[in-house]
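Supplementary Note 3. Input sequence used for the single-chain structure prediction.
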Amino acid sequence: MRRPFAFATLVGGAIGGSLDLTYAIVISAMRGTPPLRLLQSVATGLLGPAAYEGGVPTAVLGFVLHFCMALLMAAAFFLVSRRWIWLVRQPVLAAVLYGAFLYPFMQFVVLPLSAYPHPFVFRPGFFALNLLVHMFLMALPIALATRRASAEG
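The predicted structure, written as discrete structure tokens, is reproduced below.
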């Protein structure tokens, strides 16, 4: 593989981002929130509450921002795996640990530093579910794509 970084980042980020977004859309729909509104809520991180008034363009922005974050997560994992090779050798364990880092980092660092207008409310069951989603739907595809890229690189 001529470009393992690009492969791991694009494939891991695209699959992880797609699975995470699908989960978010399904959970939100079950709670009565349409996909457009969910994607606009992602855009509030950049635009604040005004994102909810922007229609389809802010939903598209939310979609793009979501995948930018997923690609950044995949790129960061790949780069760290160059130093800590065990992340490549044990991708499931690495994914569990990375996902356990990602979700709290997003909740307690990224969102508070953004323009996201909603306060965090801790609900143990919902927090645990989102932690599992980040471990297995986001971080596992990233770890497996990194393993694949590293094996052929």
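The chain is about 80% helix and 0% strand. The two ends are 5 Å apart (CA to CA).
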